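Field log, afternoon session.

UNIT: design team B
ACTIVITY: writing a sequence onto a fixed backbone
BACKBONE:
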């Protein structure tokens, strides 16, 4: 219970559940994943292959219904479960206006 309180206090922004496809280039490969939650300054990407280490910076492309959003990000944490990659938490390097508009639209 105490750990849960600390985690809730640590969250500066509301998480919005989602199931949105993304892709990103890292190294010599194109990688795919699913955003399982968005916030105003980041997201969690579920993927079986996490090639980028913590603090890596690159661009991720969000595939929405009407457009593609290219967002500059930094990997903040990598999540593993039972020795398998579950995904990674990322933070935006800066906040593009179209990203902010997109996330606000998800809240409706």
């Amino acid at each position: 219970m105490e750990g849960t309180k600390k985690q809730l206090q640590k969250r500066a922004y509301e998480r919005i559940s989602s199931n949105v496809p993304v892709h990103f280039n890292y190294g010599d490969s194109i990688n795919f994943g699913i955003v399982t939650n968005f916030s105003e300054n980041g997201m969690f990407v579920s993927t079986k292959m996490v090639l980028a280490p913590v603090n890596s910076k690159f661009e991720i492309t969000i595939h929405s219904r009407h457009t593609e959003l290219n967002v500059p990000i930094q990997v903040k944490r990598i999540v593993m479960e039972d020795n398998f990659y579950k995904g990674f938490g990322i933070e935006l390097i800066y906040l593009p206006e179209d990203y902010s508009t997109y996330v606000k639209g998800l809240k409706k």
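LOG NOTE: The mean pLDDT is 86.
NEXT ACTIVITY: expression trials, pending approval
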